[in-house]
Amino acid sequence: MIKKNSSKRPKIVVIGGGTGLPVILKSLKNKNIDITAIVTTADDGGSSGILRNYIDMVPPGDIRNVMDALSNLPKVNLNLFQYRFKSKDQFFAGHPIGNLIIAALSEMNGGIFNAVKELSRIMKVDGHVYPATEQKLVLHAKFKDGSQVDGESEITNAHGQIKRVWVTTTNGKAPKAIDPVIKAIHDADQIVLGPGSLFTSILPELMINNLGKAIINANAQVVYICNIMAQNGETNGFSDADHVKVLNQHLKHHFIDMVFVNNKKVPKGYIDQNKWDEYNQQITKDPDELRKHGCKFIYDDFLDLHDHGAFHNGDKVVKKLLNIL
After folding, report:
1. Predicted confidence band at 316 (pLDDT cuts at 50, 70, 90)?
2. Fewest CB within 10 angstroms: 114, 149, 235, 303, which?
3. CA-CA distance, 258 to 224, in Å (whole number)?
4. What does this protein do (predicted)?
5. Percent of the chain clearing pLDDT 70 (strictly above)
6. pLDDT reported for residue 2
7. Contact residues for 98 (Cβ-Cβ < 8 A; gap 6+)
8. Phi and psi torsions of 60, nearest 5°
9. Is 261 helix (H, G, I), strand (E, B) or coil?
10. What per-residue confidence (pLDDT) applies to 41?
């Protein structure tokens, strides 16, 4: 790994998964920061789900995207790493090459942790990438109507109002975060949660008992980057304060110090609902309720509009993170 006076650089730990985490990491990469990305291992859909089941490995998809975000390889190499075989290629249909490389390295190196360590070297990653745990996680959700659904993709597709989530290993036991994850949280100056799906990208890591406790006990500033849009099946009708309330309820502690909330309006009719069907309305703002949860907040323009979708502008978010750090 490339190191640049790492002992003197501020240490920022970013926790999450999905498409939101790489946005922040790409903008952090070129700053004088010691970066650690802690990535969810609960994904069970698409290529990751297939490899998880057939090869009995931790799902590689979110790890692949984080590696891409932090790599210093030329663009042509990264394009190959991220290339996804077309659906007509039956044997490899839907698999990105990067997922297959991670699968191979996991077999060669005796597990996902050593595989990621080796791949970080190969891809010239400036920072540390850790799976939240070396165990495959199963995400469970109880809905407000009393029903229960198991598995991340099934929970998302249920489109119900989620009351709470928790994680187990595939054999039903309590998972445990690996020691380097706990040490990174302990040593951090700032811990960033998100952006990402509240119940399926962020909470799965926090529900790992020793990881959640490490965040609660950390001396670091804990920042939550609130989603721009509500998500169907997860956060319909949520305000920014509702997100924080759910996080606090799950960890049974008021542990969020700062919340970043986009206040720029998404133009009416801009979002392509066919392409981005998980989007709902914009998250509403409730500053009075945020104060009741004991956290400060920043309302600002964090919006990046492209491809007829609404995303976080990584550079704007990182500028604010470094300002408050």
Report:
1. very high
2. 114
3. 6
4. Required for morphogenesis under gluconeogenic growth conditions.
5. 95
6. 41
7. 60, 64, 67, 68, 81, 82
8. -95, -10
9. strand
10. 85
